[in-house]
């Protein structure tokens, strides 16, 4: 099971997005049937908030849609660490890492891509979770294709298939 802890740096509450993001993160984690429980922290921000983190951490001075900060070593869904060393002694969970999602950017991209804000929020969450679980898209070939296939598999399981 995955425990999702949600934080928000936004003024207004967003209960629908919060619930959807939690479900998407849990669906991505469940895809792998890991024999351990885990946790992830997700923070909802606006474009300025994600821009500041992107600038400070990655030295890229622009807003982006989502940032992922993995804490453990995974390779395409395969855990490469030590359960005994990496488990939180209090909870027994592995902490996967942190995710920042710009809800402002997610809503704009949904309009730009012609699909719902729900699908975009779920997509960004799944995309980020896969980064935490060792997927990447640095090439335009097999890595990207594997990641995209997993993303669509999770979204389809949630009833959020890509609209053709």
UniProtKB/TrEMBL annotation:
One of its GO terms (cellular component) is cytoplasm. It is found in: Cytoplasm. Its cofactor is Zn(2+). It holds the Pfam family YbeY. Binds 1 zinc ion. SUPFAM superfamilies: Metalloproteases ('zincins'), catalytic domain (SSF55486). Keywords: Cytoplasm, Endonuclease, Hydrolase, Metal-binding, Nuclease, Ribosome biogenesis, rRNA processing, Zinc. One of its GO terms (molecular function) is RNA endonuclease activity. Belongs to the endoribonuclease YbeY family. It is an enzyme of class 3 (hydrolase). Single strand-specific metallo-endoribonuclease involved in late-stage 70S ribosome quality control and in maturation of the 3' terminus of the 16S rRNA. The gene is ybeY. PROSITE patterns: UPF0054 (PS01306). Zn(2+) binds at residues 127, 131, 137. The keyword Disulfide bond does not apply. Its EC number is 3.1.-.-. GO terms for biological process: rRNA processing. NCBIfam families: rRNA maturation RNase YbeY (TIGR00043). This is Endoribonuclease YbeY.
């Amino acid at each position: 099971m995955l425990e999702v802890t949600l934080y928000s740096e936004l003024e207004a509450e967003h209960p629908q997005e919060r619930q959807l993001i939690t479900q998407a993160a849990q669906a991505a984690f469940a895809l792998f049937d890991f024999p351990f429980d885990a946790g992830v922290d997700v923070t909802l921000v606006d474009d300025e908030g994600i821009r500041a983190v992107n600038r400070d951490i990655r030295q890229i001075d622009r807003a982006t849609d989502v940032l992922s900060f993995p804490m453990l070593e995974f390779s395409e869904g395969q855990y490469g660490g030590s359960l005994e060393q990496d488990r939180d002694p209090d909870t027994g969970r592995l902490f996967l890492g942190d995710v920042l999602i710009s809800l402002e950017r997610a809503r704009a991209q949904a309009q730009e891509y012609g699909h719902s804000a729900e699908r975009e929020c779920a997509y960004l969450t799944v995309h980020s979770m896969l980064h935490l679980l060792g997927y990447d898209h640095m090439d335009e070939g097999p890595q990207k294709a594997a990641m995209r296939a997993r993303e669509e598999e999770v979204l389809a399981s949630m009833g959020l298939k890509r609209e053709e």
